[in-house]
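Q: I have 271 residues here and want to know how they pack in 3D. Can you give me a structure?
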Amino acid sequence: MVGHIVVASGDIQRRRELRAALEFEGHRVAEAETAHDTLQETCSEAHDVLLLDSEMEGAKLHELCRAIRPQSDLGIIVLNRDDTGQARIDALNSGADDCVPAPFVMAELLARVRAILRRLGRSHVSGPPVVLQDRAIDLCSRKVKGPGGALINLTPKEFLVLQQLLAHCDKPLTHQSLARTVWQRDGLGEVEYLRVVIKQLRRKLEPDPSRPRYILTERSFGYRFQMHPVEPSARGRRRVLKASRNDSPAMAQLKCIGAAPDRAQSSCATD
């Protein structure tokens, strides 16, 4: 799968190397030398992936990601010379989809570009919007319509996590299974980065991200999307009905209608 790629770097040699490798694989490539050029290119043209080098004049990487993200939902891969876990978390927090420490193996970087393009290709789904309390999720355009009609872009990684949660609505998914879907690896080392993506999704979907109603944490297990959350006024109420002699154990369990939300509430916590 080929795509439209922007290579943004203040290092001309780096841009030439990346352009040559990408064009060899059939991609169309545009270059940007400064932060201003990068903003102009990504916001005025329809591109699929941005390779953002840390050697960039005019803005810090994280500031540039935050400026681009509201205007575009293209995949962003940061090429960072700071090879630490915190640097990767900071990049994800600012809107990047992946972070590759430099120096890097070109074959691995090209594989990550292909992975994002595959995910973008799979994300063209159809169906009506998913309507929440004050937001609507358009799965076709990967956008969220917020209060007042404001449109919020979902990054490719945010969309993939949300798509998985919605596909298994009201069922808990493990950290590893969600991380494996997003990063195409075993998921064991990606749980911390998954938490960053979940935090971003809550910020875009929840009326109050500090008290999530839809994307719930299953403690020590994973996450669950609750399509019909319990109203806050009803939380904390517990009503257990005694079973009559004619009731089966299963019917008695179904009648404990007030207990289920509390149990779910106790198993859920924000990160």
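Q: Anything worth noting?
A: DSSP finds ten helices and twelve strands in the chain. The mean pLDDT is 77.
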